[in-house]
Amino acid sequence: MNIIIFGGFLGAGKTSLILSLASFLIQKNLKEVHQNDQQEVQSPYLQSPYLVIIENEIGETGIDHKILRSGGYEVRELFAGCVCCTLAADLTVMLNEIADTLKPQWVIIECTGLAYPGNIADTLNRYGKHSDPIRIVTVVDAERWEELAEVAPILVEKQVQEADVVLINKIDLADDEVISLVEDRIHSINASAKKIRLSGSGMIPGSVWREITGANGSSEEVTEK
Amino acid sequence: MNQRNHPNHIEHDHVDLSHESYHTDHDHTSHHAGHDHGALLGAAEEIPAVFSQTLFLQFDKDMTENAICALLYDWLTSIQHWALFHHHYIGHIKIFAEFEEGFQLWLSATGREISVKNTAMKLPKNPVRRGTAAVTAIVFGTDEASLKVAVLNGWEETLALQSGKAAI
Q1: Does the CB of A70 have a partner CB in chain B at under 8 Å?
Q2: Domains of chain A by range and CATH?
Q3: Which residue, among B20, B22, B87, B24, has the nearest Cα to B53 in the 3D structure?
């Protein structure tokens, strides 16, 4: 079971990018199933969802899970708290239950914009039943980076620090000079993370999701569903 | 497992937001509900006020999809204006509204442009009179009581302006 934790500040564009990634994964699975059908090989995952999205929201009323569910995806919700702190135990129980019952190939966890994704990975690595390494993707809002660095410096810095991949989003809303400054700052915080510039409002190249998922494939483009 | 926070145990508020009045029996008692990084990371000041409720929308006349979209857009704009006027910092404001015939609108903003999407890609064939709106507003530099008043008053004022009445 592959797990990707999507972190990043409020309004950075996590949900839109997850829609795009989910679309990529489902298309990839459909191709694999089609190939298997032609070879008359049955996948053990055909009877269960290929992808489960765990949606965590700080408010008591969720919104993002409705958006993801309207895309046709299997979604589980954790509301009224944050899975990096107050709902850490709930997330672990939920994930272990998913691993036992649904056995999906992929689980995407969308954190609240206030979460420290590294805390979540630590908890799941300690108490989770999965065996595959967890990938942390942090989405950064290029347009608001400088403001956020003032308003919530510890939070945004730690979200970047803990990432394996940093998606520098909304590059269509910031000029090249600003984007370069953001990229330099991110590099100074986390030199080892892969940095990718993109705009969630447009087409996301398949290469972005292949980089994150480790998938092979052609250079087709995908966008949110 | 924390029963209060478990999704199966959440009781959504349904607030009647007709032209005449709205009411709610729900109040957040904690300033920063549902989030606690403690003092370890020294991030207490970085935690915002949160307003999050499902509201029942009742219109006193038939509404087209464009009129509903404009209404929700103006509502979100009013919350943004309130926050900016008081020098609060907007984390995120989101509205997900659902109406008859599967018509859905998703609006979101971070203090700049407002994004509007028809998530189900469906338009109502008939005029709309009622629906629900899940609203989450996350704002830094204010408290939950003030934020709640701003969101709910914003709706009343938007409705009043839309129907040609003077704003409250």
Answers
A1: yes
A2: 2-213 (3.40.50.300)
A3: B24
